[in-house]
Structures are given as C-alpha cells and as structure tokens.
Amino acid sequence: MKGVRHYPGFLPLTIVCLVxxxxxxxxxxxxxxxASTSITSWGGFSLRWYGEVFTGREATRFGxxxxxxxxxxxxxxxxxxxxxxxxxLAMVRGGPFRGRQASFALINxxxxxxxxxxxxxxxxxxxxIGLKTGYLTILLAHITFCIPFAYLPIAARLEGIEGTxxxxxxxxxxxxxxxxxxxxxxxxxxGIVSGWLLxxxxxxxxxxxxxxxxxxxxxxxPTAIFGSVKQGIKPNIMAISTLMLLVSVLFxxxxxxxxxxxxxxx
Amino acid sequence: xxxxxxxxxxxxxxxxxxxxxxxxxxxxxxxxxxVLPVALMAVYSFLTxxxxxxxxxxxxxxxxxxxxxxxxxxxxxxxxxxxTYISIFWRSIWQAGLATLLCLLIGFPTAWFxxxxxxxxxxxxxxxxxxxxxxxxxxxxVSLRFLLRDQGPLNGALQWLGLLDSPLSIxxxxxxxxxxxxxxxxxxxxxxxxxxxxxxxxxxSEAAADxxxxxxxxxxxxVLPVVKPGIVAGCILVFIPSLGAFxxxxxxxxxxxxxxxxxxxxxxxxxQGNWPFGAAAAMILMSLVLIVLLIYARSQGRAPR
Lengths: 266, 305
Fold this sequence. Notes:
The complex is a heterodimer of chains A (266) and B (305).
Chain A: H1 10-31, H2 48-55, H3 59-93, H4 100-112, H5 115-129, H6 135-160, H7 164-171, H8 176-205, H9 208-213, H10 221-229, H11 235-264
Helix pairs in contact in A: 1-11, 2-3, 2-11, 3-6, 3-8, 3-10, 4-6, 6-8, 7-8, 8-11
Chain B: H1 19-44, E1 48-49, E2 55-56, H2 62-68, E3 69-70, E4 80-81, H3 83-115, H4 119-134, H5 137-148, H6 153-160, H7 174-199, H8 203-210, H9 215-243, H10 247-252, H11 260-266, H12 275-300
Antiparallel strand pairs in B: 1-2, 3-4
Helix pairs in contact in B: 2-12, 3-7, 3-9, 4-7, 7-9, 8-9, 9-12, 11-12
C-alpha cells in the first residue's frame, strides 16, 4: 500500500507525455548535426548546417528576419511591460472601483480570442485606416497581444507584496513616489522581469498574427521559416529551429530562476 | 493559466486616485488595436467583396448566405443548406474535441503524478512540462512533420524494429492533424490540472479509503469533483486554440484535412480571397468560442466574492 497519492499506471502515462512532447524536438536537434545533405540518412556528426545558417545562401534572408524578430520583440515586450505594470498597479493597489471587472476582462481579452480571429480583425483594421502593412503594423499587433502575458506575472507578484512595506516607508515621511521608487518597484522587479521575458518569447514566437499583418517582402523569423518549410524541410531549417529552441529554453529557465529567487525574498 | 482573478478584493488602495491614468494605456491599446478591429470585422462580414481582395462598402448578407446556403451554380435555385463550410466547422469541432479528450487522458495522470512528487523534485518535473509550452509552436509543428514523414525517423525506427514492412503514411492525413493538435496543446492541459491537484487536500482521499472506497472509486467520487475546475480550465485551454488551429492542419494535413483556421486564412491570401466571407467565418468561429466560454463561466458558477 503506497497511500492515497499513488495510482498504478500514472507514472507510465507521465513518461508517455514527456516522450510525446520531447521526441520531435530531440530528433530535430540531433538531425541538425547531420553531415549529410539528405535529411533522411545519417552521414556523421557535423556543424556544417550551423555554418550554413550564418554564411549560406539564405543567410541574408534569415539574418534580416532574425533582426526584425528581435527588434520587434524587444520593443513590443518593453512597451507591453510598461503598460502592464501600470495596469497591475491600478488593478491590485487601486482599491475597488467601477469597471474593475471590465478592465480585467479587457486586459485578458487577447488570451480569449482565437489567434486567427485577432489576425483577421487586425488586418482589416489596418487596411481600413490605410496603414500600410509592414514593420510598424507587426509591432503594434505584438504590443497588443503581449500585454496579458506581461500582466499576469506582474500582477501575481504585486498581490504577494504586502502593503506594510510601503506603509512603513510612508510612516517615515517618504512621499508616495519615493515609496514606489525605493520600496515597491524593487520588490516588483522579479515579476516585471518574468513578465518581460514571457512577453518577449511570445512576440518572438508569433506566427499567425504576424503572417497576416506583415505585408509583402517583410519577414520575421517564424514567417521566413514557414516560407522555407513549405518547400520541404531542409537541414539548415533544423539548425535554425535548434537555435530558436535553445533561446526559448534559456529564456524560460531565466524566468523560472528569477521567479524562484523572487519568492525567497519577501 | 491561473492568474490573479478579479474576484479577490484588493486589500490596498494606495493608488486609488491614479486608477484611471494607470489603466488608460491598456484601455487605449487593447481598445483601439483589438476591440475596435473585432467590431470592424463584424461590419466587414456584411460588406460586398471586391475581386482583388478588400471590400466594397455595400451592405449585404452575401457572406453568411454563401456560408450556409447553396443556391446552385447560377444562384437562382431554391436555397438548400450548403454543407461544405458547415462540415469544415463540424470536423474542426470534432477534431478539437478529440484532441481535448486525448490531452485529458494523458494530461490528468501526468498532472497528478507531478503534484504528488516530493517538493524537491516537483519543480523539475513541472519545468520539463513548461519548456515545450514556451517553445515556438511553428518549430514544434515542423519537428513533428519531420518525425512523421514517410521516410522519417519514426517510420525508420518502426521498420528497423521489424514492426513495419513498408512505411506508414501518416503525414497529410486527418490522423497527422489529430496527433499535431494533441501534441501542440498537451502542456495547456497539464498545467491547470496540476495547479488544482496541488491544492487538493489528500485527507479527503484518506477519509474515503477509511470508508473502504478503493482508489479508483476515490478518484471518481472524491478527487474528480474537487479538482474539476482545473480540468475544465485545461479543456478550455486545449479546445479553443485547437478549434482555430492553423499550423497543425496546414503543415501536417493535406488538402482533405481543411480546418477552420485554413479556411479563414485562405480568404485573405492573394486575389482569390474573399474578405467578407473570411470575416464571416471568423465571426462564426468567435461565436463558437464565446459559447464555450459562457458555458465555462456558468459551470464555474461562482459569484464575485
């Protein structure tokens, strides 16, 4: 008898779950080191496809796409984080106010509406107001759907910070601005950083919405990869995929560690 | 995703006087770049299509008519129900439902298993589930396509093991799309159920065991009702994105595996597009999602505390 927590068969199913989730990623990562030009057979270990990514025929296209992706993600994540931090202060430290439920629903709206619907609506909007699709339209769309992803960790962190710290500062004659700058903001940093990291990853990853509002000739990394994959999976795509995989893993690990450290301090 | 809900009363009101200016940026950005566009999309679904993509501002029901009614080749037959698009929607609902069920069957035991690990190792298990959650969905789908190809590693391994004589054609079938949906959204099922099981009071199970319930009866009669909110949340998080999925049907399926996402996408590509029809299809998809969310809200049945 192993107690009420144990159910026979749950461990094998957990392993099935992890195998399903990881096998495709591991297989692609392994094949990205394949020396052979054919994606079917194994020709020994090599880094040639990684070299191909940076110097090969498609290097400029992917380089430009990567630059667009990264600059858009930096700006979108930063803007969304600022907006989300302000919203979290109002929602968590604003007391009860009229429209609080509605504001919460509005902030989380991008999570409720299917991506393809957001994509269609955003394209129609830009087309109606006559804004030419391109870099700017991608950036605007990304800022919008990044807001809830930045908001959730920031608000969660803020809810965990007791009001007593600021109260103590105010009792010692700090102004509200000083209490915010010297007490509340530093305490919020772990939440803000993980919110920013998640928003950055979400922006970097987006395909569907970007594909609708990017306009002709403009590419981000996912749309460039998608375009290539349509003509068949080539080894250099596997190398790029592995690199992006690595970036995601690094970012999630960072968000996880920062959050955990944040939880240990008050 | 378990986030801070609106129902928890805010204990602190330091910034009460700044609520409006603090919320203004998010209202403006989401209002102008999401609420307004969705409203505009509703308007577009009632406009007349222009042939090079785009619309003419003449109000008509043509898009919805085309979706639901078949008026024959010349448009003058008595209208019958047009099944083409309804069946695409129906198949999408069916596939999304099946994906949800599969995710639940694997996701629940996984979430339970992780939540019952000692605190020391639990974080690591959870981390393993979280990583695929944040890895680019396009890359995950491309990887799955690579794995499932006729000459791909999966067929290679099965043939090498002697389980198959000739490669299994999975890619470009409904099965591949089904596997793709299951694979894409599996972490979305595990995480909310994990959050619910973690809060579960195991004394309840012990009480049931003391009363001679075996573990499966305990699971059915005691555990499931208690962790139901987590299960429902997981199902919603899998079902909704599966319903509007674009990458799995596009990269893993073929011409016969059209889902709602591909149907909508096609209306905005090049000169063959039909914007009002695409907008109408998106409206219908959004209504379905809204219905699901309303059922969810009612099932939670909690008044704001």
